[in-house]
Write a structure and sequence with these properties.
Length: about 325
């Protein structure tokens, strides 16, 4: 049986698997957990990151505005279900003035590391690249250098240094709705200079696993288990009516996380609920955060639904590791 190597979180949001349901992941019965009008000027709240914070929870939310600008907002919750999201966007401090301005910010991840909360996001600097910052209180955010050259998306930090190096997965892209994309891992001694770029995994062409045939990208901060890093990721198919975003999982080597031990041939989540099938961008499930409880093995996944609202889904480490190994490519 697989185990999470991490902290306990007795107040993790949770619901048992509905009787008779076979899928490895199941949805919260009161989804969506965050509605589209989550703050004052929000058109939509989705693709957002959440972590345990001071006995409750904190998050960095993607709220697209009524003018459809994309920006990041801090939010807080006692139970992980009811959220207060700030009306004013996060103001970053300390960046070199040459990179302090951004064209847009979206799809954040939060990674607790070194006693700080690191935030990575898709940052508009002459096109999309990976922005990085840290905070201790979700009030003051200290911006670092952009991690990579444009164009890049889905920058996801590992929650500990490996052999003394910070590790970040990312997905080199183009300046539009990129019709390609594989996942790479880069290393840094200091969160500023990134190198040793290694290929982790790519799309799967043909009929074998078509849900991940157009592009793939890392999702939540990887979860450390005794069977490897458990990585939840998104995979995209180009259908005759556009992109369809599904979710898969992979197990990565603990020491060399670009070495893939297993990845699912079958998806673990597909747009199925009405709020995933209908919205500003139909047919998108897009996980960006996972809470874990090492005592019970419970995992709570926060994911964007149809680029409009935020959903919550559940699984356990035993279940997902087992599924990843037995439904592997
Ligand atoms: C990607 C990003 C995501 C979004 C997805 C589906 O390129 O913009 O934020 O969820 O497309 O529209």
């Amino acid at each position: 049986m697989a185990h999470i190597l991490g902290s306990s979180l007795p107040n993790i949001p949770w619901e048992d698997r509905p009787q008779g349901l076979q899928t490895p992941v199941w949805r919260y019965s009161s989804n969506p957990v965050i509605a589209r009008n989550g703050n004052k000027r929000a058109n939509s709240v989705f693709n957002s990151a959440i972590v345990p914070y001071q006995g409750g929870f904190a998050g960095v939310f993607r709220c697209d505005s009524l003018s459809i600008s994309m920006d990041l907002f801090a939010g807080f919750s006692a139970d992980g279900l009811h959220w207060q999201i700030n009306d004013d966007p996060i103001r970053m401090e300390g960046a070199d003035p040459e990179i302090a301005e951004n064209e847009f910010r979206y799809d954040a991840r939060i990674t607790p590391l070194d006693g700080r909360y690191y935030v990575t996001w898709c940052n508009g600097y002459h096109g999309p690249t990976i922005g990085a910052a840290w905070t201790e209180d979700f009030k003051r955010f200290h911006q670092l250098e952009n991690a990579f050259l444009p164009f890049n998306r889905n920058g996801v930090l590992f929650p500990e240094k490996i052999n003394g190096m910070y590790m970040m997965a990312s997905r080199p892209s183009d300046n539009g709705h990129t019709p390609f994309g594989d996942i790479y891992i880069s290393q840094s001694p200091d969160m500023e200079f990134w190198g040793r770029h290694r290929f982790m995994m790519g799309t799967i062409k043909g009929n074998a696993s078509a849900w991940q045939s157009t592009k793939i990208g890392a999702g939540p901060t990887p979860i450390k288990t005794d069977e490897g890093w458990l990585m939840i990721y998104h995979g995209v198919l180009t259908s005759c009516s556009g992109y369809v975003y599904r979710t898969g999982s992979a197990l990565l080597d603990l020491e060399k996380p670009w070495k893939v031990l297993y990845r699912t041939k079958d998806y673990i989540m597909t747009p199925d609920a009405p709020y995933e099938r209908m919205g500003d961008v139909p047919n998108v499930v897009f996980p960006c955060a996972a809470l874990t409880d090492a005592d019970t093995g419970r995992i709570a996944i926060y994911y964007g639904c149809a680029d409009t609202v935020t959903g919550l889904a559940f699984t356990t480490v035993e279940e997902l590791v087992q599924y990843t190994k037995t439904h592997s490519c």
